[in-house]
Write a structure and sequence with these properties.
It contains 22 helices and 30 strands. By secondary structure, it is an alpha/beta fold. It has three domains: about 95-340, Rossmann fold (3-Layer(aba) Sandwich), CATH 3.40.50.300; about 345-645, Rossmann fold; about 650-905, Rossmann fold. The strands form three sheets. An eleven-stranded mixed beta sheet has the order 11-10-19-18-17-12-16-15-13-14-20. Keywords: ATP-binding, Cell cycle, Cell division, Nucleotide-binding.
């Protein structure tokens, strides 16, 4: 066994181990350093190879990308042109913006927002979506995009297929780029609104539009608005684009509620939003912008580039703004196209039933088709109950088709109902001629057989006369109903000759009756109120038509009492204020209409929920004339309507066709009344007989004398004798009338002697006086003095005579009637007549004033008489009645009328 190791030996061994370990570490260090150097060298080599590979790969990718883009660019451009046709995809600086060829080419669903670096247009869907929310690093860039998109869409869209409403609370004026169009066609681009109240009105109308479209789509089984348009062919409903600048600035909780409601379903109903959202603007009135913005497609602009959520990582260069002159030119072209744009016409014959069903007996109502709502006939039903729909209020701006609508309504009813069951009273208070074709005129001998009264250019006095007549008719029908066991409604009356016909009273521009501040307006308002209130039960239906009723004083106090009885409202295109006046407060639907002939039909007192959008059929004049002739022949009527023309004389031939002259009651003219009986004067062989015609107007004066003379001759048992003294130098037209009068009297068998002012009239007057004194007048004789004021030497002693011819005339007029000599004379002034006939005017009581100063009229008729002295009007005063009567003098006969008149009076 080995012995213990000494310390020295141990120390020596430890040192040996330390040396060996140091050598091992040194060798390891040397080996590691070499490997590290080799690794670093290899890493560097690999980095160099990687850089080379990347460069080579990038080059390959870039080459491949360039090749792909080069091959895809034509396809991308074609696709952009197809999705955004015409001006919707053309850059702002393109020369085609100055051409009119692409304006109105088609309503685009996509629109351009910019382009790629290679010039490829970038387009995105808008109109058939809920819309865009646009954010930007600069608000000006976002506003510019909204402005450009709006211009592109209105320029590309077909006329009236797009409407743009804008809200600009900060008054940036960005929509001013479309200012030319706003001025000319505000129904395409209304003036931008700035206040919450204005925005409420716009959104309220849009809510109604959205609701109506939803109902129509559900009814026809369509989910989207464009499907409805394709099915119905309806062009009157435009796409609606709402542009909001600086949202949510200026938005209150009420507007926010409507915005969210509209945006939630906008894409399906043709309503689209273009919203510039400014994140730095806090919502007002606790408005949460996310409620609206989350419903819209995001569009982000940064550093002049715009990016869409549909095209992520494809930033497009934002287009530059449009030149103001280019925009103005485009807007002018759009306005020109809108001016000539027309709706598809619905022919009137399409609204008529089969001829085998014409003139069916009236049951509970009168009904007719006035047009179509899409493919559904638009009915107007006039009925007394269940529900009560007795009367109609029609309104619309000038030139929007009101007269056409009335003609469609009138002729539609005439084709469906027999004249025995339906009478019409048609009055036109404006300067139109639409109703004139409904009566006989000139060579046209036929007329609409239902028309009882036809007022062409009616004046207020005749309108009041018609209202009085209809009011009396209500009383008459009341007695008829009582005689049948207290019948309460005309619908309860059994069919038969005792049941009175329904009455349709059409008053076009009825507000004229109520405009002046006078007694006539007061009475007209009272009668109109009574008519609409009581007429329902008695079968009297009133159609009130107007362009505007704003500012009519008499309606301000009676508006509810009159219109509260009128459930039917038909409003054609008009202003928002007049739309509400016709329909109802808050119902501005008629202001949204685009075309002439469009109308809002409402059978519930104008309630916005009951609006019906109607395209009124077109009443072609030739078609209506053929229909009237057919109905006239079918009726077999020979009695024309009572026709009244404003500022026109009456016609002797028309009166002779319906009234027979009576002996001793010659005619002075026609009354302003529904009756066709002329105003007659009692002429008996007694003192005071005769007629004094006073005032200016040779034609009217000759017309009065003509009516008196020919009616007296036609009624005489034996042909009378006429002495015609002419003291005037008349115009050729009046001279022809004098010749026609003399010819008519001769054809009636009367002896006619004429003396004019160029002869010495004095001997004739003195011989007449001698005949009167001697009782040798020789039967019924009439002295017709046409212009005694112009007879020479009537005021002075004539040569060879000791007294004036005026003294002889005074004796003739005063004493002649007892001997059978009656004087009908005309003087231009009362005082001249008084100078010739004396203070008592030879005891003649009957005066007819024409255009004469009021003081002379009051001297005869009383101090309270008001006389306007209008052309073709006379004021008749016989001293027997408490009030003077307004008369329409006859027109002098024309030569070609003489034979017809003589034939009529001899029947």
């Amino acid at each position: 066994m080995p012995g213990p190791v000494s310390p020295e030996v141990l120390e020596s061994r430890v040192r040996g181990l330390q040396f060996a370990l140091g050598e091992l570490i040194e060798n390891a260090r040397r080996l590691t350093h070499g490997e590290h150097q080799r690794a670093v060298k290899l890493h560097r080599q690999m980095q160099e190879q990687t850089v080379l590979a990347r460069r080579e790969s990038r080059g390959l990718v870039e080459a491949a990308t360039a090749e792909a883009l080069a091959s895809a660019e034509p396809a991308a451009r074609l696709l952009a042109d197809r999705l955004a046709p015409g001006l919707a995809s053309i850059p702002p600086n393109d020369a085609r913006w100055r051409s009119r060829q692409l304006v109105g080419a088609g309503t685009p669903s996509y629109v351009r927002i910019g382009q790629l670096e290679a010039g490829t247009p970038v387009v995105a869907p808008l109109l058939r979506t809920n819309g865009w929310k646009v954010t930007a690093d600069r608000s000006e860039a976002a506003r510019q995009l909204l402005q450009s998109v709006a211009l592109r869409l209105i320029a590309a869209a077909e006329p009236f297929r797009l409407r743009i409403d804008a809200f600009d609370p900060r008054l940036t004026g960005m929509m001013g780029l479309l200012g030319h169009l706003t001025t000319k066609y505000p129904q395409l681009v209304p003036r931008a609104t700035h206040t919450a109240e204005q925005l409420h009105t716009v959104l309220s109308g849009l809510v109604d539009v959205s609701s109506l479209r939803a109902s129509r789509q559900a009814q026809l089984g369509h989910k989207r608005f464009e499907e409805l348009i394709r099915e119905t062919g309806r062009v009157t409903d435009p796409y609606r684009l709402i542009v909001l600048f600086d949202y949510p600035s200026g938005i209150d909780s009420l507007a926010q509620r409507d915005l969210v409601r509209l945006a939630a379903t906008g894409g399906d109903r043709g309503i689209c939003f273009l919203v510039h959202h400014d994140p730095a603007t806090a919502g007002e009135h606790e408005v949460d912008p996310r409620q609206l913005l989350d419903l819209l497609t995001p569009v982000a602009i940064s550093g002049g580039r715009v990016e869409l959520s549909q095209l992520q990582s494809v930033p497009a260069q934002l287009d530059p703004p449009f030149d103001a002159n280019v925009a103005a030119g485009i807007c002018d072209v759009v306005a020109e196209l809108a001016e000539i744009a027309v709706l598809p016409t619905i022919e009137f014959n399409r609204t008529l039933p089969d001829r085998s069903t014409w003139w069916q007996p009236v049951k509970d109502e009168l009904s007719t088709v006035i047009g179509y709502d899409d493919r559904t006939p638009a009915l107007v039903r006039l009925r007394s109950g269940n529900p009560a729909l007795p009367h109609v209020l029609v309104g619309g701006a000038v030139g929007q088709g009101k007269s056409n609508l009335l003609l469609v309504l009138i002729h539609g009813l005439a084709a469906r109902y027999d004249p025995v069951d339906l009478e019409m009273y048609l009055l036109d208070f404006k300067h139109g001629v639409e109703f004139s074709a409904l009566g006989p005129a000139g060579e046209r001998e036929h007329w609409l057989p239902h028309v009882r009264v036809l007022g062409v250019h009616s004046d207020r006095a005749f309108g009041l006369a018609v209202l009085r007549h209809l009011s009396d008719e209500l009383a008459r029908r009341s007695e008829i109903f009582k005689s049948h066991g207290n019948v309460a409604d005309i619908a309860e009356m059994p069919a038969g000759p005792e049941r009175p016909p329904r009455i349709l009273a059409v008053l076009d521009e009825f507000q004229v009756l109520l405009e002046d501040d006078d007694e006539l307006a007061d009475e007209a308002a009272r009668l109109l109120e009574r008519l609409v209130r009581l007429g329902r039960a008695y079968g009297v239906h009133v159609v009130l038509a107007t362009q505007t009723i704003e500012g009519v004083k008499r309606l301000s106090t009676r508006r509810d009492s009159i219109f509260g009885q009128v459930p039917y409202r038909i409003a054609l295109k008009t202003t928002p204020a007049d739309a509400q006046a016709i329909l109802r407060t808050g119902n501005t639907a008629a202001a949204e209409l685009q075309f002439r002939g469009e109308a809002v039909l409402n059978a519930n007192f104008g309630s916005p929920d009951d609006n019906q959008h109607v395209l009124v059929s077109f009443a072609d004049k030739a078609v209506l004339d053929d229909l009237r002739r057919e109905l006239w022949l079918r009726s077999g009527t020979t009695h024309p309507p009572r026709i009244f023309h404003l500022a026109e004389p009456a016609r002797l031939t028309d009166t002779a066709a319906s009234v027979k002259p009576e002996l001793g009651r010659p005619w002075t003219g026609l009354p302003i009344a529904v009756t066709e009986a002329p105003v007659a004067v009692e002429v008996r062989p007694e003192p005071g007989a005769g007629v004094l015609v006073l005032g200016d107007g040779p034609a009217d004066a000759l017309g009065v004398l003509s009516g008196l003379a020919v009616s007296a001759a036609a009624a005489a048992v034996l042909p009378p004798r006429f002495i015609f003294i002419d003291g005037t130098d008349s115009s050729p037209a009046v001279a022809e009338g004098k010749g026609a009068l003399i010819q008519a009297l001769r054809q009636l068998g009367s002896e006619v002697e004429t003396v004019d002012k160029h002869e010495d009239i004095a001997p004739r007057l003195f011989s007449l006086r001698d005949a009167v004194r001697d009782g040798h007048v020789g039967g019924e004789t009439y002295l017709l003095g046409f212009g005694f004021h112009g007879v020479p030497k009537m005021q002075t002693h004539a040569d060879g005579y000791f007294e004036s011819p005026a003294n002889a005339l005074q004796d003739i007029v005063r004493d002649g009637p007892t001997q059978g000599l009656i004087t009908f004379g005309w003087w231009n002034r009362l005082h001249v007549c008084t100078e010739q006939l004396g203070y008592g005017r030879a005891n003649v009581a009957t005066h007819m004033f024409l255009r004469h100063p009021q003081d002379g009229v009051r001297a005869v008729c009383g101090p309270l008489v008001r006389w306007a002295s209008e052309p073709h009007r006379g004021l008749f005063w016989d001293g027997l009645h408490p009030e003077a009567q307004v008369v329409v003098p006859f027109a002098p006969l024309r030569v070609d009328e003489v034979d017809r008149y003589v034939e009529l009076v001899r029947r």
